[in-house]
Amino acid sequence: EGGGTYIVNHINSGTGNTEIDGCTFETDNALSLSSGQFFLFGTFLATADMTIDNNAECINSTFAAAHGKTLTLAFGNYELEGTQDRIVFGDSADNGTVVWKGDAVTVDNPNTNALEIRGGILRDGDGSLNAFVSTFESVTVDAGARLAFLDAGQVSDLSGQGTLVAQNNLQLFGAQFGGTLQVVGTLLVMRSSVLTGTSTVAQTEIQGN
User: Fold this and answer.
1) How many CB atoms lie within 10 A of CB 58?
2) Residue 79, strand partner residues
3) Which residue intervals of the chain are DSSP H helices?
4) Higher model confidence: residue 97 or residue 85?
5) Residue 117's closest CA among 80, 158, 147, 148?
């Protein structure tokens, strides 16, 4: 709890909860978390390949993997508790891959929060990423970052200059996006959008105003 960075690489055999509040928790071992509920109100940085499968509750939090590493988030349940929060994945230095698995997502205040892929890749591990991303009021994919759906995707108020990939249809509910869109299926533009980057899509349909 508090500011700064805490490097914890040992095994935690406890069964209680783990709370990271206002600081960076850096680890190369998923077992550094106890087996109970995982509360993240700061930054979790994985410096080795690992899978986190605790139940998690998050407010204004960041998940990141070090360069060349993969962090798999296979939460039993993920709860986004706050309102007008920003959930961030990666940054320019810690630009590894975060894989999302599991569709057990509880959002207390849907369509009020912001999602940002600041660096690296946030990709779908089992087809459930859209259930998470579609709850956000806005989505930013920064330059050099990548958001990749395994199937269809639904994104609101898309911005940034990164890359967004959908292996099926992609619904856009508004955008001011200067990055790259790669859509295997149909790009469905549901609200007024400005796309100034590069797009590779099978077809485009304008359905909104």
Assistant:
1) 22
2) 57, 106
3) 129-133
4) 97
5) 147
Q: Are strands 198-206 and 180-195 parallel, antiparallel or unpaired?
A: parallel
- For residue 84, give the amino acid letter: Q
Q: Is 150 left (phi over 0), alpha (psi -120 to 50) or beta?
A: alpha
Beta bridge partners of 194: 176
Contact between residue 66 and residue 85 where contact means Cβ atoms under 8 Å apart: no
As a whole number of angstroms, the distance between CA 163 and CA 101 comes to 20
Q: Which residues contact 163 (CB under 8 A, 6 or more apart)?
A: 141, 145, 146, 147, 179, 180, 181, 182
32: number of Cβ within 10 Å: 18
> Measured between alpha carbons, how far is 63 from 78 in angstroms, rounded to an integer?
13
User: Distance between CA 118 and CA 167 in Å, rounded?
Assistant: 22
% of the chain exceeding 70 in pLDDT: 94
The token pair at 178 is: 């200067």
Q: How far is 188 from 180, CA to CA, in rounded Å? A: 16
DSSP state of 30: G
Longest alpha-carbon distance in the chain: 55
Place of tokens 């605790």: 54
What is the reported pTM?
0.92
The C-alpha atoms of residue 62 and residue 117 are separated, in whole angstroms, by 10
For the stretch 13-68, pLDDT in tens is 556 788 888 889 899 988 778 778 888 899 999 999 999 988 889 889 999 999 99
Residue 100 confidence (pLDDT):
96
